[in-house]
Amino acid sequence: MSIPFAEALKKLRADNDFSQRELAERMYVTRSTVARWESGSRLPDAAMIVRLAQCLGTDVNTLLSAALESEDAPNVIMVDDRKIFLAGALPILEEVLPNAIVTGFIKPSEALDYARANRIALAFLDIEMDKTSGLNLCRELLTLNPRTNVIYLTAYSEYAFDAWSTGASGFTLKPITVDSVREQLRNLRYPFSLGSADPYEE
Questions:
Q1: CA-to-CA distance for 58 and 10, rounded, in angstroms?
Q2: HSE on the CB side for 37, CA within 13 Å?
Q3: By C-alpha distance, which of 95, 102, 94 is closest to 71?
Q4: Pick from 19, 20, 38: nearest CA to 30
Q5: Domain containing 162 — which CATH number?
Q6: Which of 93, 104, 117, 196 could form a disulfide with 47 if both were Cys (CB 3.0 to 4.6 A apart)?
Q7: Residues 136, 59: contact at Cβ < 8 Å?
């Protein structure tokens, strides 16, 4: 008899002596995301399960075999090389997009790997990162999926002109707020539905 995914995750987390918050920080998701995985109300996709296995030091098949197939929720990513910004911004995205799979990355290369394995509906990208420009990352994401919506995040308004030239849907200044994210969602090039929690509705 296979162990349900939620129970397997809770046991592995306990074996590693991680709190939900500590696991969330290592995975670049919010604590509430981990809580939903452990309650059984949400299953991570295969790429996220691979990351979990690496983080928890277990064979990926242990988690894959315990997980059910599929997750129809849209994938939303945020890429910023500052952990402190991700920690503050990811809960805002989860509040505005409660039915989406929201995942953060500090390394653009990991975000691209994730995008190769998953169809990204919306990407929030920092423009000025250490080694990779968010403008270049946008172009690579759109090569993988031309219907990915991209919203740039930056503290510098002078980037606005360059941002529009890459095919992005929007541009907003840091720090983000619930209202600023909702405003950007109204202008997506390729709107996506979140059912009863649709953010396009007032």
A1: 13
A2: 29
A3: 102
A4: 20
A5: 3.40.50.2300
A6: 117
A7: no
Q: What's the length of the chain?
A: 202
Q: Say if residue 106 is in the same domain as residue 151.
A: yes
pLDDT of residue 58: 93
Do 86 and 49 share a structural domain? no
> 164 versus 81: which is more confidently predicted?
81
What is the Cβ-side half-sphere exposure of residue 48, based on CA atoms within 13 angstroms? 27
pLDDT at position 157, please?
65
Helix, strand, coil abundance in the chain, percent, nearest 5: 50, 15, 35
pLDDT classification of 3: cutoffs 50, 70, 90? very low
Question: CATH code at 29?
Answer: 1.10.260.40
Give me the pLDDT at residue 1, please. 29
CA distance linking residue 184 with residue 169, whole number of Å: 8
Query: What pLDDT shows up at residue 2?
Result: 33
